[in-house]
Every structure is written in C-alpha cells, then in structure tokens.
Amino acid sequence: MQKIIPFLWFDGNAEAAMNHYVSIFKNSKVLSVNRYGKGAPQPEGTVMVAKFQLEGQEFMALNGGPMFKLTEAISLYVNCETQLEVDDLWERLSAGGEKGRCGWLKDKFGLSWQIIPTALGELLGDKDPEKASRAMQAMLKMSKIDVAELRRSQTGA
Q1: FRET partner for 131 with CA separation of 20 to 30 A, picked from 14, 20, 114, 137?
Q2: pLDDT at 155
Q3: Do the beta carbons of residue 112 and residue 104 sit within 8 Å?
C-alpha cells in the first residue's frame, strides 16, 4: 500500500478524468470505484471516490462539487525519457486544455502537468555556467520543451 496518495478534487467529472489519464499512460489502471447512493450530496450512481494508478503512482479522485478548484499550486511532474514521449504526452494531455510555458500545461479537467524531458536537468546543470545559462534562456522561450533546441542553445549557435 502506498503511504502518500495524491487526492484530486473534481466537480462531477472525476470518472472521466480518471479514465482519460489511464488511457494516456501505458502502465496504468483503475483500482477501485465507489459511487454515491441515494440521498448523497451528488447524483446517485456518480463516482464518489475512485482510486487509480498511473505509471505505478496511486491517485484518488473525488467528485466533491464546485467549491474547490484545481490550481497550478499543485502540478503533476512527468519525467520523459525521449522527445517522442514529451511530444505525445504534451498533445494528449493538453487537448481541450491550455498549453503553458516551460513544459507546463493544464488539461481539460483543470489539472496542471509539467511534461519535462530528463535531459532538461542535465542541460540546466551543466558544469559550464554559460552553457547552463543558455539552456535556461532557451527553455524560458518555449512552451513544449524541445531537447534538440536546448542542445543547440548550448553551442551558442
């Protein structure tokens, strides 16, 4: 059992969000679904709480109502090994949502994600401070992170 589980609050679309996320990430599955019964604060039969797993990380989703909204104060950071993975997740997660800056996006449910290639940390942490600075300046101009462009920036070209 995972000791700490992110708990996401939705306004009626927890099941749709969970199914969307599970369809995007390869090593993912729905673990359990509990539905509201008669006399509950949400419509009978709708998901109350659902537990799911994305790439081995457990999450819980609640249909709690409109009183709390997801914000950028919490985001899900995804380490991507390849540019192809960055490109795929960027397009699929931002569909119907909002593409931000520096690898950030908001999905159609309002959840914030950071789609970040592992190479970014390597480039920003280059031992040559000038190279690291050029990579940072290049990243700050990007929406989706482009590793090839970051590498080109380090050459000063």
Answers
A1: 114
A2: 83
A3: yes
